[in-house]
Structure formats: structure tokens, C-alpha cells
Amino acid sequence: MPPLELDTFHDFLTRHLCTEMWKKAASYAKWNHEYHFCMRDPNIVIGLYNEGLERLSRIITDANNKEHPIFPEIFREYLPCKIPPFLPCDYRYFPSFWTSPTYEKQLKSILANLQLPKFIEKWPPENDTDLLVSISKYCTEVFKNPKDPLVRLLHILKASAEEFGFEKVTWTEAIQVIARKKLDEQTFKLPPEMESDNFETLIVVYDVNGLSEFSSTEWFYRNNPVVEGFKKIIAGKLEDETNMKRSALKRRHSIDEMIDQDELLRIMDKAEKMLRSPKNFRADTKIQIEALNRSLQDLEDSINVVKIMDDRNLLHKFLEQ
């Protein structure tokens, strides 16, 4: 028989659906560039969340769990206490109602309510206004009371965008907020007819081995079909990003080549020497300073022209001729 444990429904989902897997995903995304691209897509992250919910649902509602022998009622009076000293706990503290079809139906109802819809709004946004519109629409669709989740999500996503840009914002932190807020909207109090001396909140009984497999395997990582199917798109995006970096680097080198660094240093050095020698400040020196100012102005004008050409993508075309 599989070893079984009991935990409160809320804590079970908080730990295994809302927190731990996303911390792992965020860690993987830091050093795997392809996976980082996946975590930028809200629908991939939401898809992994829904898959995790489905996997946990199967663990919770596994019919084999109910075949586990019941702890004899006569032995309960010999337990150190009626209430388990810690959670998760073993089968000695399982309440009698956990195997009833009515109770399982209640668990399934909550699990169904936790399912998240697709994110159909524009992503990545171009600016703060786009961000506000897209996130507010999604929160309105997902939550009964969207105000607090909206504020939290905007804070997280804007902070990340300010550091990395909207196109590089990942959803690993945002999905944790969505999952926890969605969980908080559910009712976990036991119905009066099921209340016992041990528990006042909904509980789940699960196979320890099944949960261990869920927690230890990397089902949400690179070999996941959702992630696997995104690899071709990722390859194209990686190539575009690399080309943009190369183009920017090439333009920067072109500007450096057109500006004569030695000439710039020579003029600046000459100006410094003249300014440090006020005793030589005669009429001919004034003429030299005026000539120097003209040289500096010409140099500044040249730099500005190069910058304008670069902004208009003319410099690259000019160099290719």
C-alpha cells in the first residue's frame, strides 16, 4: 500500500502549486537562455501552472489512496493527543470523512475554480499604459476582487521592466501572486456536518511517493511539451536578439573610427596648456584661442553629424558604400 500523509488543503496548494515549483523555474531561467524566453511568455507560464494543478489533482483524488487500511478507532484513545502535533501527519489522525464522495466533490470544485484562463492581451507591452490595460483586463477576468492583485502585479512587473525592459520581463514572480490570490478567494472551512475535534479546515490525503515525484522531477522544465513546442520560436528570437546586439556594436565601432581620438586629445591638451599660462595671454594668444575654439566647434559639429546619421541608420549605409 502507498504511504499516505495528510495536510491542510490550503497549505498543500500554497507549497506545491504557488511557491516551490516557481522558485525552481526562476532559478533555471537565470542560467538557461532558452528557458528564460519561455518564462517571458505569460501563456507558457499559465499553461505550466494549469498542468501543475492537474497533476496535483490526480495525486489528491487518486482512488488507490482510499484502499489504505483505516486506523482502528479503538486505538485512537491511546494516541498522545487527538490533534496531530505537526503537519503533514500519518494515517493515525485521518478523519473518517475524507473518503466520502461528497467530500471529494468539494475538493474537486475548488480545484476547478483554481484553473487560470489564457492571457489574450498584448504582451510584451510597449509602455506603462499598455501594461495597465492588459493586466487590469486579465485580473478582472480571473479574480472576484481584482484591485489588490492588480496593484501587486503592476508593482512587480513595472519594477522588472525598469531593470530589464518589458521584452525581458519573466512571469515566475507574477504567477506566484496570481496563484496565491486565486487561492485566497476560495473557502477552505469544513462544512458543519464534517467538522471534527481534529480539523476545522479542508484537508487532503495523498500518496507520499506520488507527491515526491511531482516535487523532484523537472516536468515543467525543458522537456515539457509546452516548452518543447516553443523552441523553434525561441531560436528565431535568440537570433534576432543576437543580430541586434551585433548591429549596435558595429554602429558604436563605426562612430569611434570616424572620430579621430588623437586629434581630439591634441586639441584638448593644447587648450589646457594655454589656459594654464595666463602670462602669455597677448593679442596673438587671443587669435590662437579663437582658432582653437573654431577647431573645437568643428569637432563638435562632426560628432553631432555622426550621431544624427547613426540615429537615422544612415551611417551604416554610408560605410557600406
Q: What does the largest sheet look like?
A: 2 strands, antiparallel
Number of helix segments? Answer: 13
Indicate the structural class.
mainly alpha
How many strands in all?
2
What series of H and E elements makes up the topology? EHHHHHHHEHHHHHH
The residue ranges in which pLDDT falls below 50 over 5 or more consecutive positions are 314-319
What is the CA–CA distance across the termini?
78 Å
In round numbers, the mean pLDDT is 81
Side by side, the strands of the main sheet go 1-2
The residue fraction in helices comes out at 55-70%
Strand content range:
under 5%
Give the C-alpha Rg: 32 Å
Shape category? elongated
Describe the structure.
This protein has 321 residues and is mainly alpha-helical. The protein has a domain of 219 residues. Helices cover 63% and strands 3% of the residues. It is built from 13 helices and two strands, in the order E-H-H-H-H-H-H-H-E-H-H-H-H-H-H. The chain has a two-stranded antiparallel ribbon with strand order 1-2. Helix 1 packs antiparallel against helix 7. It is elongated. It starts with a strand and ends with a helix.
